Amino acid sequence: MPAKKDPVKTAPPAKVKPRRRSHWTRDDTELSILALPTTVWYILFCYLPMFGIILAFKDYRITQGASFLTSLLKSDWIGLKNFEYFFNLPIFPQLLRNTLLYNIVFIVMGIVFPVLFAILISNIYSKRLSKTYQTLMFMPHFMSWVVVSYFVMAFLNPTLGLANTIVEWFGGKPISWYMEAKYWPYILVFLNFWKTIGYNMVVYLASITGIDQSLYEAAVLDGASKFQQARYITIPSIRPIIIMMFILSVGRIFSTDFGLFYQVTRGAQFPLDGVTTTFDVQVFKMLNSQGTTMGQTTAASMFQAVVGCITILCANGIVRKVDKSSALI
After folding, report:
1. Tens digit of pLDDT for each residue in 97-117?
2. Is this model's pTM higher than 0.85 or not?
3. For 181-213, b where at least 16 C-beta lie within 10 A, e where not — what string?
4. Hey, what long-range contacts does 305-308 have (CB within 8 A, 24 or more apart)?
5. d(Cα 180, Cα 171) in Å, to the nearest integer?
């Protein structure tokens, strides 16, 4: 029998070390110059003002002849007393209820309806009609709440408003809209929906246009209906965007649109204040109140910021455990 030959042993391939760039390139310079204005803006308007949170822990008193910074540093340190004042306000439970309930409704409607309208518009065959609908729905996003408040006031005018004209046409009695608090939760929810749905819809629509069209073609060959295509292709494909928008919305659950709750309601005064006053409106009222100090107002704003940060981190943590690839952080 012929002797068995030993297999030829080959040397393992040498490890190739990645080349490290050891010098500054022209691309680095160009990218740094492009990022410089944004960096300066964030430093001036986002990071430097954060020093002002010291006000929340001090009894700020103006020192005669001294600057704001000197007066701030010389003011007495009072710990959490400013926060205690805010939490002990008689209307604090009402503020918490209004802010949370409105935002929960806004979050749900801000996800369900924009996704629905984005799917419907993406299935319109006429490009002209599709662009027309997108423009009409997106236009309210650019309108100021001050302008919207005048339209709302004209519409809800007790004597000449269109709303009472319609009510009287159906045989009803004119309604003093700015004296009836029970109607305003529905009015505010509708206005927020009307103003924000266009922007959110465009975000989802941009994601839908990036889906591989061969998936839809294969689904049509298999006999899938439009509903089935949306359920098994469109929604799973845009799920990361939906989750990202949800996390960002949850981070603002303790904040509200000041223009919506103050400008539209003409100052959120009695008798509407019970259903229209939120944390942001209360902070503004505290700023204009002579019996409230700057430290107490700062404490209220800091509470919103801290709780909002904790909320967004918790929401991101839950998403990260369920689907790590869809987490924002």
Report:
1. 999 999 999 999 999 999 999
2. no
3. eeebeebbeebbbebbbbebbbbbbebbeeeee
4. 307/254, 308/251, 308/252, 308/253, 308/254, 308/255
5. 19
